[in-house]
Structures are given as structure tokens and as C-alpha cells.
Amino acid sequence: MQKVIQIGSETYKLHFDEFDDEVDIDELLKIDYSNLLGEIVTFPVIVNRFGMMLAEAESKLSETKLNMEVLEAKTKERLRVELAEENGGKNPTVEMLNNAFVKTAVYKSMRDKLIKDQKTRDYINSVFWAAKDKSDKINILFKSSEITSETELSEKRINGVLVKKMGKLIK
Fold first, then answer.
1. pLDDT in tens, 83-108
2. Cα separation of 164 and 86, whole Å?
3. Does pLDDT of 69 surpass 90?
4. What residues are paired with 11 via a beta bridge?
5. What gap in Å lies between CA 10 and CA 77, rounded to an integer?
6. Model confidence over 130-169: pLDDT tens digits?
7. 3-class secondary structure, 18
8. How far is CA 102 from the centre of its chain?
9. Burial 96-107 (b: 16+ CB within 10 A, else e)
10. If DSSP codes are grouped into helix, strand and coil, which group holds residue 68?
11. What one-character DSSP code corresponds to residue 148?
């Protein structure tokens, strides 16, 4: 996944690896005590992935809310004219207009979409905070462990993140 963001006059292109097709959340959120170094190295990446998913879910929810507001304004304007014609030119009350709007099929459809998007956002939010909690606990465990920077970490996939050995970046 790529994101292009603008901060002030600067433009940045960010690249994020996505999860595999299926992720066992319960398994991912368990601490692997036998591989604490692997957990400490890979889990910030996982928290970031969930953070990105949460940002996407929040954006989608905001977009749905905006679309619903626009739809409501347009539909109520049309209903106002229709109800006025039915009442011999007399403008409908706010309550009459709101009741007519809520009865429309388009309102129900948009409301269902809003509820679905809220549910998705809430699921991702829950997983994000659980992952953040695991990350905090891993940091505490790591600080109190016997693992040092000299401890070997094998090249393999941990928590869905490929760990590769590299040379020293600073000599």
C-alpha cells in the first residue's frame, strides 16, 4: 500500500506492506515468550499496520457521513416541495419533513452503510488498541529480560513480518 501525503510544502510517498490474506488476530496478539527479540523487532510494524487500517476506516466513515449529509439536504429539499404541494402550498413542519425523510429507501440504505462503516472502524480500533497494549507489554518484558543487542535473531517471518539480517548502517 502506498500513501502520498502533503505536509506544508513537502510531499512524501510512504510505502507500507500489507497483511497476508488471512490474519489470526488472537494468535497475533499473544506474546511469544520464547521469541521476545522477534516480538520486539516486528511488533511496531504490526501496530503501524493496524494504525494505517484504522486511519483508512476513519476516512471511509467520514466520507460516508459527508455523503449522508449531502443526500439528506438534497432529499429534504425535494420532499419540502412535494409536501408543500400536497398541503396546498403550505410549508411542512420540521417534524413532517424529518419523518418523510426517514421513511425513504435511500435514507435506510445510507444509514445501513453508515452503521456498517462504524462497525468496521470499531473493530479495527479495538484490534489497534489491543496491539498497542501488547507492544507496551513487550517493551516492559524486553527491558527486564536477559536479551542484549548481541543476541542473534534468525532470518525468518515473525508476526507476518520478514526479518532480514543486514550489515551495520553506521560504522
1. 999 989 899 999 999 999 999 999 99
2. 72
3. yes
4. 6
5. 42
6. 999 999 999 888 887 766 555 555 566 666 666 555 554 4
7. coil
8. 29
9. ebeebbeebeeb
10. helix
11. -
